[in-house]
Amino acid sequence: MGAGSWGTAFAMIMADAGNEVRLWARRTEVAEGINTEQRNPAYLTSVELPTGIHAVTEADAALADAELVVLAVPSQQLRENLLQWQIPESSRLISLAKGIENASLLTMSQVVADTGISSDRVLVVTGPNLAGEIAERQPAASVVAAWDPTLAREVSERCRTRYFRPYTSIDVVGCEIGGATKNAIALAVGMGHGLGFGANSLASLITRGLAETSRLGEALGADPHTFAGLAGMGDLVATCMSPLSRNRTFGEHLGRGHDVQRATELSRGVAEGVRSAGSIQALAERHGVDMPIVGHVVDVLAGRQSPRDAISTMMARHTRPER
Question: What molecular function terms (GO) are annotated for this protein (predicted)?
Fold first, then answer.
């Protein structure tokens, strides 16, 4: 449900894994391009898609009798869509979005449950999964997380291909916090890159960003080991270091002196960290968790600090034991 970059790439994975796939696109021209030319004319335009994908513009047609429903819309639009869609009661739902809902401060699996869908039907797929690289069928690994380990194993087998290796986890909270928070950290790393900082500076931001992510996750009951794996460090490094990352690229525009409006104009697609950074900060404050990098990112996005001032302020913080 959603024919953006990641939705299209994941549809490709599912088709390559031998599944019959219906892909819901909002725009008629996108659906027609996929069906007639086996290409998405709006995203990943150079990628030839498998014949096992059929695109539709009617949500009911996409959802009819679906065994698995893959949720590939932006995080802040998920609830609105779920309340409109008629999802079959027997379907299992896979969330691809990485964010914290602004109004409720819920993760995406919690948003799904909050709309009346039992949490034992919900899974999360997350990890270092840049859509452009996966669309080229480059080797990648990911995590399929569910409260029920049997369900996680079953779904991981449904999306396993020669280039896409899914691992399983029962730490849904940890996997989602890792996926959401890394976007805000990637904005900070992008700012550093735009300011011309080198590997020492960027590695410091990534490492301390992981510490912030781990603190928040543990406060919410996550397994700390999750953040050393694909859903934590793996996703964080990929998002912070790749020019394909929307969040890192958005931050880079800010670091080069552009304001949020201009950075938005220069960026393609949704940078989830821009929409979710404030919610991550609010969630951290609710649980008494210190997240200074995320806080400074929020200040830059709000125009209260420049990227250079934000980095300088972080460096001026009191020294403390590393943890």
Answer: glycerol-3-phosphate dehydrogenase (NAD+) activity; glycerol-3-phosphate dehydrogenase (NADP+) activity; NAD binding
Q: How confident is the model at residue 222 (pLDDT cuts 50, 70, 90)?
A: very high
Assign a CATH topology to domain 180-316.
N-(1-d-carboxylethyl)-l-norvaline Dehydrogenase; domain 2 (1.10.1040)
317: which residues sit within 8 A by CB, 6+ positions away? 292
Residue from 200, 277, 189 nearest 241 by CA: 189
In whole angstroms, what is the distance from residue 277 CA to residue 83 CA? 25
pLDDT tens-digit series, residues 21-74? 999 999 999 999 999 999 999 999 999 999 999 999 999 999 999 999 999 999
**Of 121, 182, 193, 296, catalytic:** 182
272 annotated as ligand-binding: yes
Beta-bridge mates of residue 68:
92
pTM: 0.93
Q: Is 275 annotated as a binding residue?
A: no
Question: Can you point out the beta strands (E) in the chain?
Answer: 21-24, 53-56, 68-71, 92-95, 122-126, 140-146, 164-169
Annotated ligand binding at 127? The verdict is yes
